[in-house]
């Protein structure tokens, strides 16, 4: 199964190195191109995937966006419009689509990344974005992976980030295990593994 993974600094592996990103799965049946970029929003991610020359060579498109959009003050509506354009892009290119519901940010993000007001706004938008992705997935028949709900309830959740936004290496490992499980389910369901 060939996967194009697009999105923000969490996909890119900011702080832990691209080679340690949760995207990097060591399996002979899965090949992943990581095109995540630090600071990327949903619009920048859409523009990047549209420029890929070899998109037809992939089976699955993975998208992880939202946090940078909301930290930058973009509305939920502007992000959902970009997601709808990503959904259409995947359909036009016969790609299986897997969209991530991002991790929640922690209070540590207020030290250099956002103000307390922006922190609250971003957290609220992430909750609404999660609801949107789950509903849209049902309507448009794409897959989602819910990192937000999977890890939010961990007792030491705040300790799994080095700056309140970016996961540490241990969290990337937890994410990788969950991501692998979802990918294998999708791969088997679609006859790709």
TrEMBL record:
InterPro entries reported in the protein's UniProt record: SGNH_hydro, SGNH_hydro_sf
Pfam families, alphabetized: Lipase_GDSL_2 (PF13472)
Residue span, SGNH hydrolase-type esterase domain: 6-172
Superkingdom, natural source: Bacteria
Gene3D superfamilies: SGNH hydrolase
Stated name of the protein: Lysophospholipase L1-like esterase
Originating organism: Peptoniphilus stercorisuis
